[in-house]
Structures are given as C-alpha cells and as structure tokens.
DNA sequence: ATAACCTTTGAACAACTGTTCATGGGTTAT
DNA sequence: ATAACCCATGAACAGTTGTTCAAAGGTTAT
C-alpha cells in the first residue's frame, strides 16, 4: 500500500470496468445494502445461532434448545439469515437442517473480534 | 483447513490459553458485543460517513454537506462511531477533523462486498 | 383416518433507533 | 465586550425491530 494514499473503499482485486475505484462516497443504494447486511449481524441471538451452526449442521429445534429461544423465534431469525444468504438448509422428512453457507461470516467474525480485542489507547479528547 | 472439521469461530492465529478454540456457542456477553459492533454498521448514513472519511480527513460540517445530513445528525452518528473506535478525531481551533481509525472497517467492507456480489445460486427450496 | 411432531407464518405489542429541534459550550472574529 | 461560527448534547417523536402468541402446513407415525 502506498504511503500517502488515503484509506479508501476500493476493491483492488477486480480489474473490470464496473469496479472502478471509489473516489466518491457510497451511493445511497450501496450504503443501504451494506447497512441491511450488517444490520442482520446486529442481533446477539443471531450470533448465537450462527455460532451454533459453526459447530455443524443443526435442526431448528436443536438451535432453539441450544440458544435458549422459542422455536418460533429461531425460525423467524433463520428466515432473516436466509435472505442474507448466511445460512442454507436442507429438508429431511419433517426436519430442516441448517448450516452456514460459506466462510464469509467467519471472516467477518474474526475481523470484528480483532477490532474489539485491540487494546484501548490513551484518548486525547474526552 | 482439514476437510471434515466443521466451520468454527476459532481464532487460530493466537496460541494463548485464553483463546481456546470455540466448541460452544458464543456466550451471551460475547454475542452482545458482536451485535453492538455490527449494529453500528447497520445504518446507511453511517456507511456514507465512513466512506467519506475513507477519502481523507473531514470536518463535521463537510461531512454533513457531502452526505446530505444535518450537522446535528452527523455529530450524533460520529459519537456512535467513536464509541466503537471506528473513527478518531483531532480538534483544531473550532473545527474537529475526523478520520478512519484503522483498516478494520475497510476489511469488513470488502468482505461484505464480496459476499453481497456473489452470484445467487439456484435455491432448492422456496 | 387421527394424532403427534417439526417447522413456518402472521399479527400484535414492547423495546429500540435515528432523526429533528432547541439549546449550550467553546473558539475566532470584529 | 458582542457576534458569528463550529460542534455537541438532550428531549421528543416517528419508524423500525424482535419477541410472543395463536394458527396452520407438511411429514411420520398409529
């Protein structure tokens, strides 16, 4: 990374014309989609569900028992996680098995974890 | 990564004893902190502000003009971004210059962007 | 067939969030 | 000193979110 370039939201790996470096602020549309995605990760029970699925495939009832929620509440949350393609599922008889869709959620967890675990430096202000 | 190990929320880079592999679901406390952090990223105007700061240091008034918000609203949001240590600031006379604190936010943006841009595969259900 | 099981869905309601508005603190001018 | 400027803060209000509750769909038993 060059030294004087400001931090930017570029996506440098892609050379296509539709992936031009961002020299403007995010469009309302892109910002909205970002917010919707991260908003889904803004609930503690959804993280508990995701972390349970990180251990392996689980049925809805099992998830409810592990995280201590009603099956209805878990089902509602799983629907939200599905719309953001964070989980996938397969039906087997009357059971539905959910699992994490890919590694993105794990990378996000790790990145956030590192940020939260950083030692707090001395603040000038406040 | 071994083939049969389930995806897990381990943090493999650290070998310390206080960073044991996660074989249980996230604690309520950890899940809460994760949710609080990602919840901050769950607002489109905060992403617009962050993307403006990704281009370089900006004053509060400049941010308000660029993102099309009132200065008060921007100030409220900057406070939230400060509490999550996503931005830092320096005072210069009566102006306050904000900037991104580190690269974590950029990594999170990129990871999410890749996830959102993934082609949708054929769903079995629904 | 009926019953039990697992899951999903919709409505309703309490709790939370982000904005506006008014106000005030602190700094730089005149 | 007063005025203008830049920013932060608190209250209040509309909009959103996550839960509970009741009901129903679909599958596997008996």
Keywords:
homodimer; 126 residues; mainly alpha; Arc Repressor Mutant, subunit A; three-stranded antiparallel β-sheet; DNA-binding
Helical percentage of chain A: 40-55%
Q: What is the assembly state of the chains in this entry?
A: homodimer
Question: Which consecutive residue ranges of chain A, at least 5 long each, have pLDDT under 50?
Answer: 1-6, 12-20
Q: What is the count of DSSP helices of chain A, taking H or I runs of 4+ residues? A: 5
Average pLDDT over all residues of chain A:
86
Which strand order do you get reading across the main beta sheet of chain A?
Answer: 1-3-2
Your description of this structure?
Two copies of one chain form a homodimer. The first copy, chain A, is mainly alpha-helical. Chain A has a single domain (28-117), classed as Winged helix-like DNA-binding domain superfamily/Winged helix DNA-binding domain (Arc Repressor Mutant, subunit A). Helix content of chain A is 46%, strand content 11%. Chain A is built from five helices and three strands; from the N terminus they run ααβααββα. A three-stranded antiparallel β-sheet of chain A has the order 1-3-2. In chain A, helix 2 crosses helix 3 (60-67) and helix 3 crosses helix 4 (71-83). The first copy, chain A, is globular. Residues 1-6 and 12-20 of chain A have low confidence and may be disordered. Chain A binds a DNA duplex (30 and 30 nucleotides) through helix 4.
């Amino acid at each position: 990374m060059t030294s004087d370039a400001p931090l930017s939201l570029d996506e440098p790996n892609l050379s296509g014309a539709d992936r031009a470096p961002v020299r403007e602020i995010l469009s309302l549309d892109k910002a909205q989609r970002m917010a919707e995605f991260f908003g889904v990760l803004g609930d503690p029970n959804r993280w508990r569900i995701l972390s349970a699925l990180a251990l392996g495939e689980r049925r809805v009832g099992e998830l409810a028992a592990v995280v201590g929620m009603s099956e209805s509440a878990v089902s509602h949350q799983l629907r939200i996680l599905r719309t953001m393609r964070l989980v996938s599922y397969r039906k087997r008889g009357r059971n539905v098995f959910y699992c994490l869709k890919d590694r993105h959620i794990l990378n996000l967890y790790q990145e956030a974890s590192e940020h939260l675990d950083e030692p707090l430096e001395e603040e000038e202000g406040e």
